[in-house]
From TrEMBL:
Database matches in Pfam families: zf-LYAR
Keyword Nucleus: yes
Superkingdom as given in the UniProt entry: Eukaryota
One GO cellular component term noted in the UniProt record for this chain: nucleolus
Chain segments annotated as transmembrane: none
Domain Zinc finger C2H2 LYAR-type span(s) in chain numbering: 48-75
The protein's name: Zinc finger C2H2 LYAR-type domain-containing protein
Gene Ontology terms, MF aspect: DNA binding; zinc ion binding
Biological process (GO), any one: rRNA processing
Chain spans, region Disordered: 165-184
Biased composition regions of type Polar residues, renumbered to the chain: 170-182
Length: 249
């Protein structure tokens, strides 16, 4: 029986009522915690593990797992700073997801049945990327859709119904050295350094990449930085036969 890997997405250790997600080891579907018990029954998975603290839980023990040491806290050590309760990046992300939801659910939208069906699956995620490259990687890793034509059709709908670029664009996440996340030259090396330890789930990799970015003295919202990290993972490092990301030799 396969080990089920769970993960806790973008939540701080001391945050009340955190939004917890788990990834099913049988089908690799991302599931919200309230729906996990039913999902695991259908997939016959007996174990889950938290990606933030790497702790493995036996059947139903995961229900009490609400707080842990996150990857960011683990790798940043004394440099770690919990997110503020009011996060502008999260507000912007929520607005983006609501906009995507409105576009997908609008019956007047001219979307073919297959594309609409694929887009419906996006509604189970709260962290839909706002950048095209990150969107492609996200769909491939989260929905296991590898056809660029299908993903392109999905992105066309999402992008066409988003806010005008001038409004939707976030300000650069400038750090103390003036380097924005978008132009930071260290992403490629950080990806390669992390993957030398071995293959890992894309979510864990993104969290570690953000920690490396912060270690250089730069700042930015966790959501914005994770999306930027995702967009810098080379597509050839992902495979339709393996849910993890790994270096290509």
């Amino acid at each position: 029986m396969s080990l089920t890997h769970g993960f806790h997405i973008i939540s701080s250790t001391f945050q009340l009522a955190p939004m917890v997600y788990f990834e099913c080891g049988e089908c690799n579907e991302t599931v919200k915690k309230p729906k996990l018990a039913k999902h695991l029954l259908s997939c016959n998975a007996a174990y889950v593990s938290c990606i933030d603290c790497s702790k493995v839980f036996a059947w139903n023990e995961w229900e009490g797992h609400t707080n842990c040491i996150s990857e960011a806290q683990k790798y940043q050590g004394s440099l770690y700073q919990p997110k503020e309760s009011t996060n502008k990046g999260q507000v912007k992300q929520d607005a983006w997801v609501d906009n995507v939801r409105t576009a997908i659910e609008d019956p007047k939208m001219d979307i073919d049945a297959n594309t609409r069906s694929l887009l419906q699956k996006l509604l189970g995620f709260d962290n839909i990327p706002r950048k095209e490259k990150a969107f492609y990687n996200f769909v491939k890793n989260s929905l296991k859709i590898w056809d660029d034509g299908k993903i392109g059709a999905m992105w066309k709908v999402v992008a066409a119904n988003s806010k005008p670029a001038g409004q939707a664009q976030a300000k650069p996440n400038n750090g103390t050295n003036g380097t924005s996340a978008k132009t930071w030259p260290g992403w490629k090396r950080a990806v390669e350094d992390e993957l030398r330890e071995g293959a890992m789930p894309w979510k864990r990799l993104c969290t570690r990449l953000v920690a490396r970015y912060r270690d250089t003295g730069n700042k930015g919202s966790e959501e914005e930085l994770e999306l930027q990290a995702l967009s810098n993972i080379p597509e050839e490092y992902c495979s339709d036969k393996d849910p993890t990301v790994k270096l290509m030799k």
